[in-house]
Amino acid sequence: MDTIEAIENERVALQECLDLCKTQEERNCLGQFPTPTSLAEDILQYAIQLMEAETRVSFLDPAIGTGSFYSALNKFVSTSQIDKALGFEIDPHYGEPAISLWDEHKISIVLGDFTRAKPSPDYNLLICNPPYVRHHHIAGKEKARLRQSVLSSTGIDLSGLAGLYCYFMGISHPWMAPGAIAGWLIPSEFMDVNYGKAIQQYLLSKVTLLHLHRFDPRDVQFADALVSSAVIWIKNELPPTDHQVRFTYGGSLQQPLKSLLVSSQALAAEPKWSRFPNASARKQKEQVRLADFFKISRGIATGDNKFFILTEHQITQMGLPFEEFCPILPSPRYLPQDLVEDKGDGSPNIEKRLFLLNTRLKEDEIKKVYPKLFEYLESGKAKGVHSRYLCSHRTLWYAQENRPAAPIVCTYLGRSDSKSGRPFRFILNRSAATVANVYLAMYPTLLMQKCIGKDSGLVQRVWAELNSLSPEALLGEGRVYGGGLHKLEPRELANLPADFILPLIGESLLDDVPKQLSLIA
Prior knowledge:
Layout: H1 4-20, H2 24-30, H3 37-50, E1 57-61, H4 68-76, E2 82-89, H5 92-101, E3 108-111, E4 123-128, H6 140-154, H7 164-172, E5 176-187, H8 196-205, E6 208-214, E7 229-235, E8 244-249, E9 258-263, H9 264-269, E10 294-298, H10 305-308, E11 309-311, H11 312-318, E12 325-328, E13 339-340, E14 354-357, H12 363-369, H13 371-382, H14 389-392, E15 408-411, E16 413-415, E17 426-429, E18 439-444, H15 446-454, H16 458-468, H17 471-475, E19 479-481, E20 485-487, H18 490-494, H19 501-505, H20 507-512
Parallel strand pairs: 1-2, 1-4, 2-3, 4-5, 6-8, 13-17
Antiparallel strand pairs: 5-7, 6-7, 8-9, 10-18, 11-14, 12-14, 15-17, 15-18, 16-20, 19-20
């Protein structure tokens, strides 16, 4: 029998050859992203440390591929210590070569769908890099089957927005022996998104969550998948009272850059687990949020920016009526300044001036009053703009959402290593320009409106404070993708702690307004 090092070298070469036989699109649809050798070995070495010494291993990998985890297992555990091993691979393209590669070892590789197999609760070590398939690639009937299977296995009802890896975690539950250790290499997005709440519930109530390690998003673990990764370690037993979970970040499992123990009670109250270990647990109800002062909305999704957003020159050249357009800010790459002044007519005093078609007139009225605009709309129909998803679901296919100008707007995509050091920019908008969905618009609440009415400089002071917030404060609210790209959704920005606004308002103003804040009441 060849040494495990020789077999691993052969496996890596085989994996590369098999991957080259498929297109990137084909592999993306099936969520096929192989685990690098170094990462597989880091995970298995850590897994053995979690098990009791000299424990005989019954190994399960529900998505084995060519066997990177099984190969790593053989590096750290003697053959005599492995009782049995089982792997599932749905794609014969990888499964058949894997069977040939491991035919002399203690592993049975099943060519088939793990999610349809009958559970056998005999395995005390489960390690898996499940398929990273997004929900829109899962057919409706298949999603309903998977959802019911997870519900039957765990009592947890997954959201229809969950990716396939979430179903794998739930369906694997009845395969684990009592006290079994499981390690899951999955996208870290479950820590922040709404559909991840069901996974969080499973981890806190059905098993004991031992350790959650999140890799630095700039250190992409899979060269062909821009996804921020995490490894979850669980034990198949109910969590003890006053349980604490180890959260680590960056580096490796063996040598993380940061570490923090977080109580299960704090995790149950915290919707964004990616805060840890960079921030201590906080009491949600005791903090003022940005939502107390601003309503956050995403900018307009036009349905076709090239058709609905025009320059002054284009509008003039085609003879279109300016009165049926409103100013709109360009995308952040074309807006270097963080302060947008009014040119005097409501339009922004900036270099790249754009205007959004924003009419509520019906087509027969437009044809009568603005024949040039009617011709332009007809040209849009000829291009199929009216049949696009957003346009086709409007009463008037060309009518835009109601998004008045917001005094402060925020970019919703950014990088933690940007030249400015700020992943997100807050822009003070003194014009009447609206924004597209590359921005988040901040509209003052009634409370804030009353304060602004008595202090016209308040908005500018809030804007200055927002731009002076530490990157960590903002990154803790958003979500992150591979390569260090961060995203901030309206609800996440609204959840930003906003105690810094209270001193800007002042006690005298707060005393004069209705006591709408829980902190003030």
